[in-house]
Amino acid sequence: MARSPSSGGRDFPRLLPPPGGLSGGGPGPQSEGLRRGPQPGIPARRTGGGAMENPAGVDWSRIPVPVEDGLAAHLPGMTLPSVRLAGTDGSVVDLSKLPGRSVIYIYPMTGRPDIPAPDGWDTIPGARGCTLQSCAFRDHFATLRDLGVRHLFGLSVQGTAYQKEAADRLHLPFPLLSDEGFALAGALKLPTLTVHGQRLLKRMTIVAKDGRIEHVFYPVFPPDRNADRVIEWLQDNP
Prior knowledge:
By secondary structure, the chain is of the alpha+beta class. It has helices at 12-15, 130-139, 141-146, 160-169, 183-188, 226-236; strands at 84-87, 92-94, 101-106, 149-156, 176-178, 192-195, 198-201, 204-209, 212-217.
């Protein structure tokens, strides 16, 4: 998320959606296939060797690195709880009932180009990079499918209407899921952070198979390389 000047933190409440998300139309259908070509928001670019470049030019050496605090150590081997989560494609998803392999990347909050970033956002370990993380999973969508991932989701605690703005702007070929009521987060005891009085989920990625957690990436840094790390793990664990 790009850092913009803010005035005494007053922009932050405007960036975080109110309960129920932003007003506007409901979620609409999205394509199942991988959308290609330049994308609004963050363009997809690759080096000659196939590795992802950093399209926003973020100097990660200036961003605080999240530490391993052990708050996700209990997750591998757990069964996902039966929780119904609304998706930006109009679906309602119960992760516990999905057959095959699923990848769920969990992030604090995507920014919006028309609203300044929260005051001090870049100084919070693990906060920066939600948009870049989503774009990386978008650009690797076909590869993940080829490696046997049947279901790919992003997940945060923002409302569906707020999430849909990002899903549409970034042309994501998979839905974002809303855990606005912290039902999934509470059942799994997911680690959280509080920013300006707002409770958000810490960044992590869960790989599950037939409703059971196989592997957890936590902490995740830098976030734009998370999809690459997931692909490497899938190649080693077919």
